[in-house]
Amino acid sequence: MNDDWEERTAAAWATLHDYDEGHAADFRAVIDALVAELPAASPLGPFEQAGAWDSTGHSDKAVPLYREALARGLGGNRRRRATIQLASSLRNLGKPEEGFELLGPELDAPSDELDDAIRGFLALCLADLGREREGLALVIGTLAPHLPRYQRSMANYARLLVEPE
Fold first, then answer.
1. Which of 105, 106, 148, 150 is most buried, judged by most C-beta within 10 A?
2. What CATH number is associated with residue 125?
3. 117 and 74 in one domain?
4. Do 76 and 144 share a domain, yes or no?
5. Cα three-residue angle 120-50-5, rounded to 5 degrees
6. CA distances, 147 to each of 107, 120, 136, 143, 150 (Å)
7. CA 80 and chain centroid, separation
8. Count: domains in the chain
9. Per-residue confidence (pLDDT) for residue 19, from 0 to 100
C-alpha cells in the first residue's frame, strides 16, 4: 500500500488506548474503514482486522483472519508479526501446542527485531504445555545478551535449566 495509507493506519493504531472496552467496536470500525481502501485480495486487510479483534479481546475472531492473511501471502515483517499474534491468540484459546508449532520454526528464520518477541511468546506456550523449565531457559537466554553484566553466567544458567544432569 502507499505511504499515506501506512501513516493513517499507524495513526489509527496509536489511538487504540483511547478506546475503552465499551467502545472497542468504534476502533474496529476505524480499522475496517482503512481496510476498505485496500484491494479485495490484499493480505493486509485480514491482518489489520485480526489485530483489531485481537487487541480488543477477541482472539477467537482474530485467528481465522490471521490465517487468511498468511494464506494470502502476507510478507516481510508483517508475516512474522502475524505468526506471533496468531500463536498468542491460539494460546489464549487454550491451544498452546499450535502456537508452539507456529513459533518453533521462527527460531531459525533470519534475525530481526522480533526475535525476542518470538522467544517470549514461545516461552509462554511452553509454560502452558507444562514445560516451564524450557520456557524459563528460553527467557533467561534471551535476556542474557541485554544485561550490562552477567551475560555469560545467565546464558550458562539458562543452558543448565534444560541440560540433562
1. 106
2. 1.25.40.10
3. yes
4. no
5. 105
6. 21, 16, 16, 7, 7
7. 7
8. 2
9. 92
Say if residue 9 is in the same domain as residue 86.
yes
Q: Which amino acid is at 106?
A: E
Residue 67 grid coordinates: 490465517
What separation, in Å, do the N-terminal and C-terminal C-alpha atoms of the chain show? 53
Give the three-state DSSP class for 64. helix
Distant-in-sequence, close-in-space partners of 35: CB < 8 Å, separation ≥ 6: 44, 45, 48, 49
Sole residue written with cell 501446542: 97
Range of the domain at 86: 3-130
Nearest to 11 by CA among 38, 37, 31: 31
For residues 150 and 84, state if they share a domain: no
Q: Which residues of the chain have pLDDT under 50?
A: none
pLDDT in the model for residue 1 = 66
Pairwise CA distance, residues 58 & 40, whole Å: 23
Q: How big is the chain, counted in residues?
A: 165
What local confidence, expressed as pLDDT, does residue 21 receive?
86
